[in-house]
Specification:
2 helices; 161 residues; alpha+beta
Length: 161
């Protein structure tokens, strides 16, 4: 498997394919003709959006243009691999948020395993947060007692014996 580094991707987004309850989630970075799509979990998108939101709050306010590009997934979706660990850092000299995605493996973390590293500007980070929140909220609603997703026919809530 190959590793990729995108120092200034045009678009960084998330998306899902399938009906609620059976959706498959993806992260996608696009730079010119290169489209990198990684399969991930809904919780990873939520956690990344939450982290990005907190990071933007911690940084000094800076002017940036809002991303106005199309944040929908480019289809056909062809996943490179499934995301495992995610690392995030802020590179102050370039004012970029650097995100490193590692492949999910059954083995111990492999330092030589494939990675995708994207360097995002603040507007891309803010756009990702807003888009991810809409994406995640479009799924099944959470149970008000346990937080697990509720299907149309309900669910067996562990807190309601």
């Amino acid at each position: 498997m190959s590793s990729f580094e995108l120092p200034s991707p045009e678009i960084f987004t998330s998306g899902a394919i399938g009906p609620a309850g059976q959706r498959v989630f993806y992260l996608q970075a696009r730079d010119d003709q290169l489209v990198l799509t990684l399969r991930c979990e809904k919780q990873q998108i939520t956690a990344l959006a939450d982290y990005f939101d907190g990071l933007l709050d911690d940084l000094e306010p800076a002017p940036y243009d809002l991303v106005t590009g199309n944040l929908d997934l480019v289809e056909p979706v062809q996943e490179l691999w499934t995301v495992g660990p995610i690392g995030v850092a802020y590179d102050e000299p370039t004012d970029r948020v650097v995100v490193v995605f590692e492949e999910l493996t059954a083995e111990e973390p492999n330092a030589d395993g494939p990675i995708v590293k994207v360097h995002l500007n603040r507007s891309q980070v803010a756009a990702f947060v807003g888009h991810a929140r809409i994406l995640v909220s479009a799924g099944r609603p959470p149970c008000r007692f346990c937080g697990l997703p509720v299907d149309a026919e309900g669910h067996a809530c562990p807190r309601m014996n």
